[in-house]
């Protein structure tokens, strides 16, 4: 009797036919060097990298909503004089490290193996999560411990995000790449907002629980990625561009730090853009980045491959991603302040409960991401990225204009619809845009391309905080002091105390609101002003509605500026997206288990016009 040989899949089918290899045997064979990955490998790569970017992006935002509980837990008032730096670095340290390092780590992935760098990132992330949850100190020392280990955690998270898109691009063929990158990237975007909800829920239990969440997930991811992922693209060993690395890290870090500290007041000014140290940081950072571009154009093996910008899809996609990230980051923080400082207190929520509920009421934004992201990625594989990305950005611009037209005390159904529209638009943009960027570069450059893409996104998020906080502070500075002084005096606060409270920088009021504190209590805590008022006056001033009613006019003026700028950025992003060119990927991924097909010389000649040498 002749033995029957079981049929196998075609290399990219979802399941092997007949008695094909099991998922377990595929994972085992994936660890054998030189063995082509099995038919199920691409789904293993998708699920693992999606877990990686989810935990990395959640931890970027989970701390934001948990800051009140964290600072109470370590016994530190972040709004006290001299402590504002702790607050800024707790918020921005993770983002700054991510913005500076991802391109370096993407380049290292190209040289030494994307999976190797990715696995190491999971391990570092797990160790940092354990250290964060075990903070043994209090007050300033406790804050420094958290800031230090958040930076280490960001280093591990950057290893994950810098290489995840490249791993997926290697694993999936062009006809499925948009769908895979859509799931991965939309999970990353959704993670930013899911982190807000998770942070609010966990901080209510224990501030250390905010960091406990990452421990089992990152340990599981570390073991899983080591056992299941494999290198599917040959690494290109070469020399590390040390001079380029140093100038980029220093230039980007100094520039972003200068923008960050521009939020703080300087002298009699509401913001710090006239501070000599801030100006020195902005100028020095810009000079170093110009020097970096010169170095990269003259070294044999650059870290930041400027030649990739000759590819129209790559250049247009990254410009659109940068501007969209700036608009999206500003939206996140402005919505939090709007909900926590105005809308939720007006509807009976205590200030200390607003961080959690702000995250919950912003869930329509996440829902829009989750609906549109994978679907647009799937459709863009067939019809191209330009249509979906450009239309998505048009929806984003329309949603910003809708938010611009809302009153401060809005009807939630309309607000939720606009958030859903914004999420749908961003989902339509992100997945096809990422697929277009990654499919436009040669396989050997995908690690650095992924790092460059992440650098633009992370830099945009960090920039957005400085840009939009400054716009909001400038809007408040013109009318908030007068409204605050007259409102406090009308409720019995002495003229001197009212004028002193009104003279405090608007950014202090914004941060108090952001942390879920009653801003009036923060403004009047010094000097015992509240203790000298009648019970009725005290109750009126510290109630839920006094501050929201008082600042609704100045705050709406600030929102008008913020959302107008965000809408303009979305329109420019849409124009950049429309210029990306045709939808066919310049490079495909060979089918798993099969050698690459012979190149068509006519197509190869055509690609040379749009591909870096």
From TrEMBL:
The keyword rRNA-binding does not apply. It is a multi-pass membrane protein. Residues 45-520 form the Major facilitator superfamily (MFS) profile domain. It is found in: Cell membrane. Keywords: Antibiotic resistance, Cell membrane, Membrane, Transmembrane, Transmembrane helix, Transport. One of its GO terms (molecular function) is transmembrane transporter activity. The chain crosses the membrane at residues 51-74, 86-105, 117-134, 146-168, 180-203, 209-229, 241-264, 276-295, 316-344, 356-375, 387-404, 410-429, 462-480, 555-576. The lineage of its organism: Bacteria, Bacillati, Actinomycetota, Actinomycetes, Kitasatosporales. Its main location: membrane. It holds the Pfam family MFS_1. InterPro entries: MFS (IPR011701), MFS_dom (IPR020846), MFS_trans_sf (IPR036259). PANTHER family: BLR6921 PROTEIN (PTHR42718:SF46), MAJOR FACILITATOR SUPERFAMILY MULTIDRUG TRANSPORTER MFSC (PTHR42718). Residues 1-37, 582-613 are annotated as: Disordered. This is Major facilitator superfamily MFS_1. Residues 600-613 have a biased composition (Basic and acidic residues). GO terms for biological process: response to antibiotic. One of its GO terms (cellular component) is plasma membrane. CDD domains: MFS_MMR_MDR_like (cd17321). PROSITE patterns: MFS (PS50850).
